[in-house]
Structures are given as structure tokens and as C-alpha cells.
């Protein structure tokens, strides 16, 4: 059986705790791999390696840092298929979707290659007689990243390329459910010439997470995952004096106005709700149908849902793969099973779906629930699976009030031909990322990703300009070079510019 070990100080390190976790192939249900779970001592070793590497990496020139990142970008590009295959084998998503994940991660590596532009300081000359003031940004030291199972390559690449480009060193704690893709990313970084200790990986569970949160040499913690864990990460990290960025869960609404092209809206609802089996924090999980279009829209979505091809992710004909674990599949199914009793209409029930030849795989079909009450569990909870809820609203005002009453504010979208309505929506809706006729409005790499309310804890979004600010701290330098003959004299008053 394959064992995924830690990566500390530039080499693979076997786990010494004796604890391992299972890694399943979701399409077959078989355990093909196990992952070493780190002890406190192993986390300490990774942090120590990162701290030692920071002594030199923090002062390496921008040109040398970016030269390594350019080489890394080329290696990632050459190994796209290999990384995507690792994602499919352990997460289950179809190969084309896994390739898309790698491509999105590459955007951030490309952003990091241009870090010199982002780190330019500011200079004001002559602010007072003979006095200049400059502002610079400097790295913080050891940075930790705790990443989720649903994007085992992309989300780590949202973090460490920008962090190390800014001069920090990094300790990554990937999901123990699908760790191989993250480890391959780190191996390729070493092959690109990244010095030992700059980028480390410790696998683990709560033991590893808690040690990173409390370790005195970890300056910064970045996290992506569920809202309850994001709250925990933020409170524990802040308690230990760390800068923290914790992205939580979502319940993304897609508002469809009566003037929208319903075929276009139905296609996009299918893509956004059922892509990657709904295991995306930016998945559309609620469609809000305004006016009298609900019945037609639901029929169009149901007709399309019936034609989706569900199967192993390595089958080119598959459009949707399995869920990550059996336990998660059963939990997702429970929302559909209980929907009718809570007032919803079950239009499509995919809970009994099986794939011939893969009966032990963690497959589930797509489900569609109509007229879902806002009190139903399927509406209130983040399901994180291929279950789409449809809610009816009489007017735009009713719909926007419904969306804004959600405790989450990650992403949202409006489908309409009315530019005025779209403009009003983007200004009024309470969410961090908004799409206009775009159902999954994930920003490109040179903008920043992040939500509002219970979807983000911390004051900086991830990657883009926010990412650079998060992984650096500002310093202002005031300079004066007095002339040899200049007399200053004694003056205890508050300094004045003159």
C-alpha cells in the first residue's frame, strides 16, 4: 500500500507517530493509500526547518525568487495531467475538472512570478526640509496553510506561491483525505530549485492543526474549509497572537429574473450545482426563481439533470464523479430523504444511484428540490453535494431580502437581460463575489477571492493584492541627512514639518 509521508527540510520524511489515516479511491471504495499523521514533534520539526530557511530566504533577491517561480511554473505546466490524475484518484472529480483546478492554481503561480511589481514601495521626497519618507513591505516569517479536500492542488497554490514570493517560508497541512496532489506540488517546487525548508508539508488531523495554531514561531495562518472550523481557526490563532485568514462555508444563491433566458439559466444552474459533485464552496446550491418562471425553470433543470453521465473520474465520458467518502455521501443523501417531510417537493431523487462495476464507490446521483422552505435543513445547511434547492419569490425585492438574510455571503449570481437590475443587484447583495450571468464568479488571479459574513473570518481575502498584503507587513522609514553645518538645537515640542 502506498504511504504518503511528510516533506520536511527538502526531503520526504517517514512518520514517526505510528498513526496513519486511510486514503480511499472514491470511485471504487478501496483504500489504495495511507497517510502518515503528524505528532506535535513532527509539526515542530517542520516549523523549525521553515524558521531556519527563513534566515536566508527572507533576504534572497526578488530576481532569484522569481527565477525559481518561473521554473516552477514550467514544471507544473509539464505535469498538469499527472497532478490531475492524482486529484481524480483520491478526490474523485472527473479529469477535465481536475485539469481546470490545476490551471486555476497556475494563475496564482503566474501572479507570484510578477511579485516584484506587487512589492514596490512608495517614496515621498521633501516632506519636510531635507526629510524623505518611504514605505516598504517585508515578509513575516513562517506561514502555515491548512487546506481542504475539495481542491487539493488549487487551494494550496492560492497560498504558498504568493507567501514564498514575498519572502516567507511555508508549512502546509493538506487534507488527509487526498494528500498526494499537494505532495507532488511540493516535490516539483524542490525540483525547480526552491531551497530546503522553504516549503514543507505535514499531514495530520486536529493534533497537527492545533500545534500550528499555537506554535510560537508560526506568524500567519491561512485556512479554507467549513464555517465552524474557520471560526475555531480564527479564535485559536488570534488567541496565540497570529495574523489569520480563515475562509468558511457558503450557501450560494443564483437569482433568476423573469426576463432571463431560461435555457441559458438552466444550463448554468446544472453546471454550477452539480460540477465536481457539488463539492465546491462556490457551487450554486439555491436557485431563486422570481415571478412566474419557476415551473418552466424547474422543468428545464430536471430535464437536463436526467441526462448527466455519472461515473468514475478517469472515464472520459463521465461528467460527474463520486463524493469524497461514504460517510459524506450518506449525509448528503439524508437531506434529500428528509426534504418532503420538511415541506419541499422532491423533483429528482438521486440518492439510490449506483454505477455498474463500481457498486462500492461513493456515488450519488443529482437531486433537485423545489419550493424549499427556508426553514428546511436542505436550505439552512451547507450540504456540499449535488443537491440543488429551488426557492420561489414574487419580486426582486423579496429575492434580495431572502439572499441577504443568509448567514453566509461567499458568492452569488443574477441571471437577467436587464442592465439596471444587474447593477442594482451587484450593489445591494451582501456577498464577496458576484456574478452577472456568471454562476461561479471565482475571480481571476490578479483579483482576490473571499466572501462576507460567515464565509470569511479575517480582514484580507486570499491571493491577488489582498494576498500580498496578508503575507507582508508594512514599514515606514523617515530619513534625514543633515548638512554638516546645520544646527538643530534642543526643542522638546512635538515635531513639525517645515
Brief characterization of the structure:
This protein has 498 residues and is of the alpha/beta class. The chain contains 16 helices and 23 strands. The strands form six sheets. A seven-stranded mixed sheet has the order 15-16-17-14-13-19-20, with helices on both faces. A six-stranded mixed sheet has the order 10-9-8-11-12-22, with helices on both faces. Strands 1-5-4 form a three-stranded mixed sheet, covered by helices on one side.
Main sheet? 7 strands, mixed
Give the overall pLDDT as a whole number.
96
Q: What is the distance, rounded to the nearest whole angstrom, between the alpha carbons of the first and last residues?
A: 74 Å
Unreliable segments (pLDDT under 50, ≥5 consecutive)? none
Gyration radius over CA: 25 Å
Shape: globular
Describe the structure.
The chain has 498 residues and is an alpha/beta fold. The protein is built from 16 helices and 23 strands. β16, α13 (377-380) and β17 form a beta-alpha-beta unit. The chain is globular and about 85 Å long. The mean pLDDT is 96.
What keywords describe this structure?
7-stranded mixed beta sheet
Task: Describe how the helices and strands are arranged.
Layout: E1 2-4, E2 6-8, E3 11-13, E4 20-25, E5 30-36, H1 40-57, H2 62-78, H3 80-90, H4 95-113, H5 115-118, E6 122-128, E7 131-139, E8 142-146, H6 154-165, E9 169-173, H7 180-191, E10 199-201, H8 206-214, E11 218-224, H9 227-239, E12 243-247, E13 252-256, H10 262-274, E14 284-290, H11 294-305, H12 326-337, E15 345-348, E16 367-370, H13 377-380, E17 387-393, H14 396-404, E18 408-409, E19 411-415, H15 419-428, E20 433-436, E21 452-453, E22 456-457, H16 464-470, E23 472-480
Parallel strand pairs: 1-5, 8-9, 8-11, 9-10, 11-12, 13-14, 13-19, 14-17, 16-17, 19-20
Antiparallel strand pairs: 2-3, 4-5, 6-7, 7-23, 12-22, 15-16, 18-21
Helix pairs in contact: 1-8, 2-4, 2-7, 3-4, 3-7, 4-6, 10-11
Amino acid at each position: 500500500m502506498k504511504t504518503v509521508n511528510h516533506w520536511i527540510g527538502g526531503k520526504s520524511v517517514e512518520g514517526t507517530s505510528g498513526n496513519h489515516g486511510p486514503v480511499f479511491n472514491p470511485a471504487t471504495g478501496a483504500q489504495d493509500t495511507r497517510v502518515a499523521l503528524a505528532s506535535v514533534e513532527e509539526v515542530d520539526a517542520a516549523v523549525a526547518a521553515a524558521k531556519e530557511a527563513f534566515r536566508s530566504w527572507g533576504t534572497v533577491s526578488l530576481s532569484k525568487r522569481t527565477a525559481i517561480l518561473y521554473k516552477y511554473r514550467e514544471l507544473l505546466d509539464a505535469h498538469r495531467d499527472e497532478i490531475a490524475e492524482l486529484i481524480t484518484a483520491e478526490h474523485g472529480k472527473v479529469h477535465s475538472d481536475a485539469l481546470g483546478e490545476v490551471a486555476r492554481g497556475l494563475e496564482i503561480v503566474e501572479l507570484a512570478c510578477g511579485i516584484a511589481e506587487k512589492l514596490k514601495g512608495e517614496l515621498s521626497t521633501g516632506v519636510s526640509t531635507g526629510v524623505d519618507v518611504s514605505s516598504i513591505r517585508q515578509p513575516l516569517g513562517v506561514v502555515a496553510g491548512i487546506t481542504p479536500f475539495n481542491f487539493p492542488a488549487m487551494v494550496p497554490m492560492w497560498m504558498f506561491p504568493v507567501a514564498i514570493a514575498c519572502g516567507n517560508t511555508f508549512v502546509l497541512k493538506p487534507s488527509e483525505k487526498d494528500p498526494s496532489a499537494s505532495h507532488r506540488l511540493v516535490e516539483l517546487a524542490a525540483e525547480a530549485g526552491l531551497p530546503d525548508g522553504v516549503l514543507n508539508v505535514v499531514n495530520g488531523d486536529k493534533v497537527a492543526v492545533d500545534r500550528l495554531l499555537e506554535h510560537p514561531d508560526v506568524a500567519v495562518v491561512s485556512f479554507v474549509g467549513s464555517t465552524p472550523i474557520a471560526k475555531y481557526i480564527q479564535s485559536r490563532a488570534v488567541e496565540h497572537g497570529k495574523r489569520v485568514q480563515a475562509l468558511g462555508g457558503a450557501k450560494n444563491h443564483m437569482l433568476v429574473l423573469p426576463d432571463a433566458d431560461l435555457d441559458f439559466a438552466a444550463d448554468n444552474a446544472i453546471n454550477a450545482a452539480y460540477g465536481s459533485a457539488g463539492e465546491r464552496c462556490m457551487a450554486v446550491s439555491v436557485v431563486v426563481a422570481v415571478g412566474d418562471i419557476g415551473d418552466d425553470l424547474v422543468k428545464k433543470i430536471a430535464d437536463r439533470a436526467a441526462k448527466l453521465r455519472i461515473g468514475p473520474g478517469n472515464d472520459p465520458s463521465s461528467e460527474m464523479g463520486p463524493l469524497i467518502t461514504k460517510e459524506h455521501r450518506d449525509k448528503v443523501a439524508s437531506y434529500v430523504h428528509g426534504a418532503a417531510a420538511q415541506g419541499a417537493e422532491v423533483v429528482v431523487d438521486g440518492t439510490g444511484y449506483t454505477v455498474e462495476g463500481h457498486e462500492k464507490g461513493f456515488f450519488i446521483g443529482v437531486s433537485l428540490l423545489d419550493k424549499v422552505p427556508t426553514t428546511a435543513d436542505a436550505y439552512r445547511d451547507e450540504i456540499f453535494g449535488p443537491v440543488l434547492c429551488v426557492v420561489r419569490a414574487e419580486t426582486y425585492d423579496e429575492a434580495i431580502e431572502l439572499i441577504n438574510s443568509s448567514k453566509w455571503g461567499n458568492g452569488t449570481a443574477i441571471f437577467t437581460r436587464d442592465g439596471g437590475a444587474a447593477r442594482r443587484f451587484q450593489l445591494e447583495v451582501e456577498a464577496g463575489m458576484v456574478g452577472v450571468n456568471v454562476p461561479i464568479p471565482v475571480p481571476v488571479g490578479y483579483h482576490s477571492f473571499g466572501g462576507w459574513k460567515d464565509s470569511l473570518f479575517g480582514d484580507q481575502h486570499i491571493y491577488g493584492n489582498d494576498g500580498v498584503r496578508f503575507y507582508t507587513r508594512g514599514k515606514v522609514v523617515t530619513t534625514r541627512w543633515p548638512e554638516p553645518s546645520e544646527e538643530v538645537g534642543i526643542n522638546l515640542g512635538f515635531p513639525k514639518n517645515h
